[in-house]
Design goal:
This protein is α+β, with helices and mostly antiparallel strands. The chain has a six-stranded mixed beta sheet with strand order 1-6-5-3-4-2, with helices on both faces. It has a four-stranded mixed beta sheet with strand order 20-19-21-22, sandwiched between helices. The longest helix has 19 residues, at 291-309. It holds the Pfam family Thioredox_DsbH.
Length: 789
């Protein structure tokens, strides 16, 4: 078919420090040369090539569903009518494998994964393959977004024993859950240069019958080696490395891989990588007067501008697609993920703080508009994703990008009105076609569409500045902006009548935490209460539907039920480290945006629970999963890469610093030091793999600012000082409102607050560092000067 069905090629900057590629990008494997048929393990078989893509569709219902019909996960339900005797991950499947002495076939994916759809249609709907899987294996399906611990453990094996990783991930396990063969996407049948899934199954079946002991020995040996290689511990180190050294090395590595023309840090595919942009902004702040500092700012701002102008951004409906298949940010993989929207909203908001350019704040507002409209549950939670695939017309089989592509004819028919005042005959449709680079032949290159199925189709991408488009037709810039906005709105209304992509209505605590941050930070910086209210409603949703009061634990998932209800799996899926870390970050951001101390109090309680469930008291840092929840898994890992999402340990390091700033509790500062020390070796070897943790290291070794505003929360002068702080990019700070009540939560945490007074009964700001506070400040302009020093 098209470029959209070709697995992305390897690109720089996302490899594991030990030489093992990491598969942290969802729905893609930027680290492997070809996702199809990457096979690793102790069964000998040839490497395969790429299978031909067929349009994917939902499984046609069979008479009898399998065990997945009782699950809540949209991904598992997509496989409920396969002719495969699927089991969910759990003791029933493990007991069956032990009793019947069969290997376990573990298949991991997620509901908006394009290649997962492919393998489901080609192989898991195949009756013969279904019989093989049901008779000779115990087949287990896992939604990687529900069980990131299972995904991480076996992805570590696949990456270590094959040429890369990605999804779907398919691994064969012994009955005691030790892996012995793994791969990613398999086409159903053999080709000239590939091995088909049916052949793989037959060979593994034969090996299990004839050489089972050898397989068991090899799996034990590989597991032992992985355990040693994945260990992250303080060892005999007492302190983390130098922040200045790590900062410099991380910046240099990014500088070497930077694309001067189009921004970003790879040839293709290109990913948004908000963690890298966040690092560059922090690096700029600490090196503002140096050439490297200016370079870091330019790299980040240019990348954000090129992304926003490219086809990776949905110019009609807003929001960002998963990644670009080309260097120019032009033709995307059309899947939309909640975690991308959350992090990019913050990145564009920070770009606005730093540059003052409204272009960036407009993009941030557009992202949040998309999330509020398309990814929001009526009770305040946020859905996980929208699929890349949808039917071009009702009744047709889904194709990737069908919802988002346009022909010239469609645009001209929707926008036929003539534009007055132009230097040549011009319709509003022709103006939009010119500005966004649409052509009769289509603007997707033949190399990205090898089967010619996208001829005449176009991805909207900004080709000219407003000024150039206006000059081309002799129009005012303001008039062009209005015409383009009106045209895009008409396209948006027309697009509503197309069949929509599948919505993954699963709600994850971690990603909802990121989204609370996105709304809270953007709302605070732009002074928009409406956006802060979305963050408040998101936090209320988390507390109402994803928090168990009795145990103090977060739940990982909940699901949209019928009629706007919220459903849970039974038993519940409990939270992982990233759920706690991302929700705590969201609550800290929400406190600073809303000044409602209840959110700060809940963040403290969740951090206590996180410490109890995940902290490694011997080696330092946090494990990704609870010991009990991961019982039986051969590895208990600590995530050591900031990828599509930041590592939960990186976020936890920031959270611990902020919580220490809010409370003065020394234990959290000590934990932060232990965590950073545990990851010292990883940071030293490949700092670019942990840019968010390098940021935390810098924050630790600098001085955190406690910015205290003494005043009435509802008074105009208090709000003016708060807005002054929000408008400035200051990543290494906590913002505290002291309302004068000595019994308040924060006054009890930080006794020194009671010594700070309002000056002449006006709202007054103090900037405190190293247990010393500035002189009182009542004017926002004076506070701005001090904070810019």
């Amino acid at each position: 078919m098209s470029h959209l069905s070709s697995p992305p090629q390897k690109h720089k900057g996302e490899h594991k420090g030990r030489g093992l590629p990491r598969g942290s990008e969802r729905g893609s494997s930027p680290r492997d040369k070809d996702r199809s048929v990457t096979v690793g393990g102790s069964v000998s078989m040839p490497a395969g090539g790429k299978g031909s893509r067929t349009n994917c569709s939902q499984s046609a219902p069979q008479k009898t569903p399998n065990s997945l019909i009782h699950e809540k996960s949209p991904y598992l339900l997509q496989h409920a009518y396969n002719p495969v005797d699927w089991y969910p991950w759990g003791q029933e499947a493990f007991d069956k494998a032990r009793k019947e002495n069969k290997p376990i076939f573990l298949s991991v994916g997620y509901s908006t994964c394009h290649w997962c759809h492919m393998m489901e249609e080609e192989s898991f709907q195949n009756e013969e393959i279904g019989r093989l899987l049901s008779e000779d294996f115990v087949s287990v399906k896992v939604d990687r977004e529900e069980r990131p611990d299972v995904d991480k453990v076996y992805m570590t094996f696949v990456q270590a024993t094959s040429s890369g990783g990605g999804w779907p991930m398919n691994v064969w396990l012994t009955p005691n859950l030790r892996p012995f063969v793994g791969g990613t996407y398999f086409p159903p049948e053999d080709g000239l240069t590939r091995v088909g899934f049916r052949t793989v199954l037959l060979r593994i079946r034969e090996q299990w019958k004839q050489n089972k002991n050898t397989l068991l020995e090899n799996s034990q040996r590989v597991t032992t080696a992985l355990l040693a290689r994945s260990e992250i511990s303080m060892g005999d180190r007492q302190l983390p490395p130098s922040a200045a050294t790590m900062n410099s090395r991380c910046f240099q590595q990014l500088d070497e891989g930077y694309d001067e023309e189009y921004g970003g840090f790879a040839e293709a595919p290109k990913f948004p990588t908000p963690v890298i942009l966040s690092f560059l902004f922090s690096y700029w702040l600490g090196h503002r007067l140096t050439q490297d500092g200016s370079r870091a700012q330019q790299m980040a701002l240019h990348t954000l501008k090129m992304m926003a102008n490219g086809g990776i951004r949905d110019h009609v409906g807003q929001g960002f697609h998963r990644y670009s298949t080309d260097r120019q940010w032009h033709v995307p993989h059309f899947e939309k993920m909640l975690y991308d929207q959350a992090q990019l909203a913050v990145a564009y908001t920070q770009a606005f703080q730093i540059s003052g350019d409204g272009f960036y704040s407009d993009v941030a507002k557009g992202i949040l508009q998309y999330v509020a409209r398309s990814l929001s549950h009526r009770s305040g939670g946020f859905y996980s994703a929208e699929d890349a695939d949808s039917p071009p017309e009702r009744g047709m089989r889904p194709k990737e990008g069908a919802f988002y592509l346009w022909t010239v004819k469609e645009v001209q028919q929707l926008l036929p009105d003539h534009v007055p005042g132009a230097t040549e005959p011009l319709t509003s449709g022709q103006l939009l076609l010119k500005h966004y680079g649409l052509t009769e032949a289509g603007n997707i290159s033949p190399s990205q569409d090898p089967k010619g199925e996208l001829q005449g189709q176009n991805v909207l991408t900004v080709r000219y500045s407003l000024e150039l488009t206006a000059a081309r037709f002799g129009l005012d810039v303001e008039a062009v902006q209005t015409l383009l906005d009106t045209g895009l709105e008409k396209l948006f209304q027309a697009r509503k009548h197309r069949p929509k992509p599948h919505l993954d209505s699963k709600m994850l605590a971690a990603w909802n935490g990121l989204m609370v941050s996105g709304f809270a930070v953007t709302g605070a910086v732009l002074g928009q209460e409406r956006l802060i209210n979305y963050a408040i409603n998101g936090a209320k949703f988390l507390k109402r539907h994803m928090f168990d009061v009795a145990s103090g634990r977060l739940m990982r998932t909940c699901y949209a039920g019928s009629g706007g209800t919220v459903e849970h799996s039974n038993p519940p899926c409990w939270g992982f480290l990233e759920d706690y870390a991302f929700v705590v970050r969201g609550l800290l951001d929400l406190y600073e945006a809303s000044q409602e101390s209840a959110w700060l109090e809940w963040a403290l309680r969740l951090q206590d629970t996180q410490d109890r469930l995940f902290w490694d008291s011997r080696g330092g840092g946090y494990f990704c999963s609870e010991a009990e929840l991961g019982a039986g898994l051969p590895l208990r890992l600590k995530d050591d890469q900031d990828g599509a999402e930041p590592s939960a340990n990186s976020v936890s390091a920031h959270n611990l610093l902020r919580l220490h700033g809010f409370t003065g509790h020394k234990d959290w500062m000590d934990k932060c030091v232990c965590l950073l020390t545990a990851f010292s070796e990883r940071m030293r070897r490949v700092p670019v793999a942990l840019p968010e943790m390098v940021r935390a290291l810098s924050a630790h070794q600098q001085t955190l600012k406690q910015i205290v505003i003494c005043g009435d929360p509802q008074a105009k002068d208090t709000k003016a000082l708060l807005q002054c702080v929000h408008s400035i990019y200051i990543p290494n700070k906590v913002l505290i409102l002291a309302d004068g009540d000595p019994s308040s939560f924060l006054s009890r945490q930080l006794p020194f607050l009671s010594t700070l007074r309002r000056l002449e009964d006006r709202a007054t700001a103090y900037v405190c560092e190293n247990q010393a506070c500035s002189m009182p400040i009542t004017e926002p302009c004076e506070l701005r000067k001090l904070l810019h020093q």
